[in-house]
Specification:
Length: 225
C-alpha cells in the first residue's frame, strides 16, 4: 500500500504537459510538440487535462483515506504534494515556461499554496471531527483540483502585462451555470488589465468558475490572445 501511495505524486508529475507545448517568445504564441501554433483554447485544454488527472488522483487517495487504507496524516500529506505540483506546473504554462519564472513568480504560487494548505487543514479537522462523511470528503476534494486553474490565469495575466497587453475582458462559458458576479464582470466589456478579477477570484463560483479572459493590446482589437 505504501508503494501505491508513493506513486500518487508521480502520477501528477509524470504528464506530457511539459513535452506537449513550448512558448515562442518572438511571436508570443504557444507551439505544440510538432512546432505548430496552438490556439488559446488548446492551451486551456492542457490545463483542463491537468485538472482532470489531478481530480482523479485526489479522489483516489481520499477514498483510500475513507476506507482506512491510509491514515488521515498520509492523506493530507499526499494531497498537499499533489496540489503543489499541479499549481506550479499550471502557473508555468500561464507564464510561458520555466524560463519566465523567477523568485517573484514562485512567491506568488507560494502565497496561493499557503491558502490552499490552510483550507486543507480545516478539511482534515472536519474529517477528524466527523463533520465530513466519506461521501462528502470525496465530493469536496474536487474543489482542490478545480482551484489549480486559478494559478494558470494568474500566470497568464502577469505574462500579458509584461508583454505590453493593456486590456482584458471576461468571457462567460455558455455551457456553465454562473453566479451573479460573473455576468456582471463580463458585462463590463473591455477594461484595463487588473480592473477585473481573474476567473475564480471574488465570485461566488470560486474554484468552480468556468469563465475565460481575453487580452488585447489596443482599444480596437483585431484578434484576442
Amino acid at each position: 500500500m505504501l508503494n501505491d501511495l508513493s506513486g500518487l505524486s508521480q502520477a501528477v508529475l509524470a504528464t506530457r504537459l511539459d513535452a506537449a507545448w513550448s512558448y515562442d517568445q518572438r511571436t508570443g504564441r504557444y507551439r505544440n510538440e510538432k512546432g505548430r501554433f496552438m490556439s488559446q483554447k488548446a492551451v486551456e485544454a492542457l490545463v483542463d487535462g491537468r485538472i482532470g488527472r489531478l481530480d482523479t488522483t485526489l479522489r483516489r487517495v481520499t477514498k483510500m483515506m475513507a476506507d482506512g487504507s491510509i491514515t488521515l496524516e498520509q492523506w493530507q500529506g499526499s494531497v498537499r504534494e499533489a496540489i503543489k505540483a499541479a499549481h506550479i506546473q499550471t502557473a508555468i504554462i500561464g507564464h510561458g515556461g520555466k524560463d519566465s519564472m523567477g523568485s517573484v513568480e514562485y512567491g506568488r504560487i507560494g502565497q496561493r499554496l499557503r491558502a490552499e494548505y490552510a483550507y486543507l487543514q480545516d478539511f482534515a479537522n472536519d474529517v477528524l471531527a466527523g463533520r465530513a462523511s466519506p461521501a462528502m470528503a470525496v465530493a469536496r476534494i474536487s474543489l482542490y483540483a478545480e482551484s489549480v486553474r486559478g494559478s494558470y490565469w494568474q500566470g497568464l495575466e502577469l505574462r500579458k502585462q509584461a508583454e505590453g497587453y493593456g486590456l482584458m475582458r471576461r468571457i462567460l462559458d455558455p455551457q456553465a451555470r454562473h453566479c451573479a458576479d460573473c455576468p456582471a464582470y463580463a458585462a463590463r466589456g473591455l477594461v484595463p488589465i487588473g480592473t477585473l478579477p481573474m476567473p475564480g477570484q471574488r465570485c461566488q463560483c470560486r474554484a468552480r468558475c468556468k469563465c475565460r479572459v481575453e487580452f488585447y493590446r489596443q482599444q480596437a482589437p483585431n484578434a484576442p490572445v
